Amino acid sequence: MKTKVMKAAYATFVMLFFYGSMFAQSVGINDNGSTPNANAMLDVSSTTKGFLPPRMTNAEKTAIVNPPAGMIVWCSNCGASGQLLVYDGAAWVNLTVGALLLPGAPTIGTATAGNTQATVTFTAPASDGGVTITSYKATSNPGNITGTLTQAESGKIIVNGLTNGTAYTFTVTATNAAGTGPASAVSNSVTPVALSIGQSYGGGIIAYILQSGDPVYVAGENHGLIAATADQIGYALWGCQETSIVTSTAIGAGQANTTAIVNGCNEADIAARICYDLVLNGYSDWFLPSKDELNKLYLNRVAIGGFVDTRWYWSSSEYDASNAWYQHFGDGSQEYFYKYNANKVRAVRAF
Prior knowledge:
Immunoglobulin-like, elongated, 4-stranded antiparallel sheet, 17% helix
């Protein structure tokens, strides 16, 4: 009995000694019995196994609240094939290269041609590298002609200086404090052309090209209105007599007007709904022009073609709860009339 008690006491002494030693001295984890380095609190040693830190996605890493400086994780979808990261107190740093992480590749959208230019849309990359993206660059092939956009979010880039008649594709890269990340996939091919009123373009006929002074004009960019090649229906009501719907008469307001009418008036086969539901030549973003947009169609009616010059055409601009603006395509007069009146309809879309 005495021997058993002495053995238990000895075992307890050894455990307490070992426990105290762990806190007072270096700790070694190895498979060869080697002594840990005296300058290290923890010395992991092996010739057959490695150290495996916590593994997580970039989203999971970003979700860590107030990470302490020195925290280490493996980010499985950072970079091309994953990266070992440490938090330096301000940002996640790539231990592989000893620098901040580069952003990922943006997702390419649609390229649209203009006159000596193209508009390239993109979506921001899933990973910004832990540091805010400062800019994006679109690069053409051929020519390596570039356009830039200074912002962190998704958007569109205008690339100027292209040659009309030449086909181009584009890639987009993102840049943060660490540098420029990998390029996106290649865009669709587009061919810039000189735009003119009456030209077949974008599913219809160019009806108007925005000029300086127009509400939605952007210097250096080509935008305007495309008219359908023919009227959409014999005649249609404006709809919802005695119902007030907030609209505008300005250039650039037609699309918002049309959406407001469709949302605010549930009557079928009204002028705005006919344009809103229209799918023509591969495009589904048609709308009923505003009062000022309709006037541009009248001024360029010969180049556009197909109008009935003895008839009135509806605009999407309301005058009051009972009346809406329309225009005569013979003498060009613009007046307001009862919404229950039936008039001609010509859809347009923006470019």
